[in-house]
Design a protein that fits this description.
Elements: H1 13-44, H2 46-59, H3 69-75, H4 97-116, E1 117-121, E2 143-147
Helix pairs in contact: 1-2, 1-4, 3-4
Length: 156
């Protein structure tokens, strides 16, 4: 029998804001580290940026696309087909709220950014990072975002 919630079991309203601040704050750090490295990857390997854009265009993304969490969920359902513990950012992946929140945030943000901008790296010096920081992020990654005015055609 599936679990059902009784009317008296709602999350206390006085605790909702406090808990949302914790989730959003933790999600910011968790999502910013992979976003930094993903942007590093797409400026280092520009063909990857073109592939992402092509997939978005083929998926039907256009100027009127609403970049909502529901849209981000629909972008890559392949993540559900991965081996259950193939990526463990926190506990054991799919059940971790921090992992799911960060994954949704990264998928939505990266998709919208790549669709709207072409990223180009400024400078070629080696990337430095602080290995003692909780989440390793590049410290000296400088990138220029150029607004797109043309998009690829849909694949045949």
């Amino acid at each position: 029998m599936p679990w059902t919630r009784r009317a008296s079991e709602h999350f206390p309203q006085g605790l909702q804001l406090v808990n949302m601040l914790i989730i959003v704050g933790a999600g910011y750090t968790t999502a910013s580290a992979p976003m930094s490295w993903l942007i590093y990857c797409i400026v280092t390997y520009p063909e990857t940026q073109d592939k992402i854009l092509q997939e978005l265009v083929d998926y039907g993304v256009g100027p009127d696309t609403e970049w909502t969490p529901k849209f981000a969920h629909s972008l890559s359902d392949n993540i559900k087909n991965c081996y259950r513990a193939s990526y463990m950012r926190f506990a054991t992946g799919p059940r971790c709220i921090g992992f799911n929140f960060a994954l949704l945030k990264v998928k939505n943000s990266l998709s919208e950014l790549v669709y709207r901008y072409k990223f180009v790296r400024e400078g070629l010096e080696a990337i430095e990072y602080d290995p003692e920081f909780q989440l390793v992020q590049p410290l000296n990654l400088f990138v220029m975002a150029k607004r797109r005015t043309e998009w690829l055609a849909k694949s045949a």
